[in-house]
Design a protein that fits this description.
Layout lengths: L2 H9 L4 H12 L5 H15 L26 E10 L10 E2 L16 H11 L1 E2 L19 E8 L5 E4 L14 E2 L6
Parallel strand pairs: 3-6
Antiparallel strand pairs: 1-2, 1-4, 4-5
Helix pairs in contact: 2-3
């Protein structure tokens, strides 16, 4: 089992409000005052065995990065075939190195954050995910889209990303994207 799977299995015997707290911490950077208030109400209600316990959602596998289906390492190879995506010219490609660190730099308004938002939407990410915006300067604005290529088990599958909430392949959930500047 993985670190996350072990943690979720371990949490199965915790009170529901604690499992909800774990879920909140898994999907966002920190607890907000509203989170703390909701968890406090749930804790008190559960301790007093009240029938009207506030809705708590326990942590499960959908809230954490997954291991790739076959246990292989997963690496994002690039983003290509961008269409109407922020200020990124249609057809633009961003390639990532297979080893080490890839640094993406450029002037303000050139699309760096647009690429980051696509990755945060397609992969596993903590915190709120900013909406991927269409290119307001395009002659005919449309729905943004891109293709995310990734490496797993010697093959290079492609995920055709079209909008936030698109269900990415399980392998891409093994890639964890952290908060970045402007993303």
């Amino acid at each position: 089992m993985s670190f996350y799977a072990d943690g979720i299995a371990w949490s199965g015997n915790l009170p529901l409000w604690q499992r909800d707290a774990l879920r909140r911490l898994a999907i966002q950077v920190s607890l907000t005052p509203a989170d703390i208030a909701a968890l406090t109400l749930a804790c008190v209600a559960e301790a007093n065995q009240q029938a009207a316990v506030p809705a708590s959602i326990p942590i499960d596998n959908s809230h954490v990065p997954s291991a790739s289906g076959n246990g292989s390492a997963v690496t994002v190879a690039g983003i290509s075939r961008c269409t109407c995506l922020n200020a990124i010219p249609d057809g633009q490609t961003l390639t990532f190195g297979s080893d080490g660190l890839t640094i993406v730099y450029g002037d303000n308004g050139t699309g760096k954050s647009g690429f980051a938002r696509v990755l945060r939407s397609a992969c596993q990410a903590r915190g709120s995910i900013a909406e991927v915006l269409s290119n307001v300067y395009a002659d005919q604005p449309g729905c943004p889209g891109a293709c995310v290529q990734y490496l797993v088990s010697g093959s290079t599958p492609v995920f055709n990303w079209r909008k936030a909430g698109d269900v990415a392949p399980e392998d891409l959930r093994a890639v964890s994207i952290s908060l970045g500047f402007g993303a």
